[in-house]
Task: structure prediction
Amino acid sequence: MASLTIDQVSNILQVEVSTLRYWEKEFSEFLNIKCQKGQRARYTEESVEMFSQIKELLYNEQYTIKGAKRRLEMERTLTSALGIEANFKTTVFFMFSAIIQELQKAREESKKLAHELELLRKEKEEIEYRLTEEQQKSLWKFLARKFGA
Result:
């Protein structure tokens, strides 16, 4: 692919030029866009792929800008440190995502159980209170009968 203009990239990715400009600023460390002073920027296949990945993270996976940067940094670290190929990298991320989802589910379940436990404690206290009241009433009735009321 030859180098492209920002308008061409905008058409390819179906996002506004202003969005691409914003992403250029926010994700500059991931986009290797070189521009001679006084000339328009040209975009390579790699930069289009990175823009596409940013779009996927922000629009489809609902990442925040900060979260998308962390994700891209983690990917870059995995790729450079381990030299792993894209398929394995994707598998690792799916595994991490699944683990995180399971942890979130477990945390939610734990909160529900803690809430149910608190309700049971309150119910137990109420029952113990009523039982004590009934025992006292019975004791008073017994004493009243025994000692002449």
The domain at 1-81 is CATH 1.10.1660.10 (Multidrug-efflux Transporter Regulator; Chain: A; Domain 2). The chain has a mean pLDDT of 85. The helical segments are 6-13, 17-26, 45-60, 65-82, 86-146.
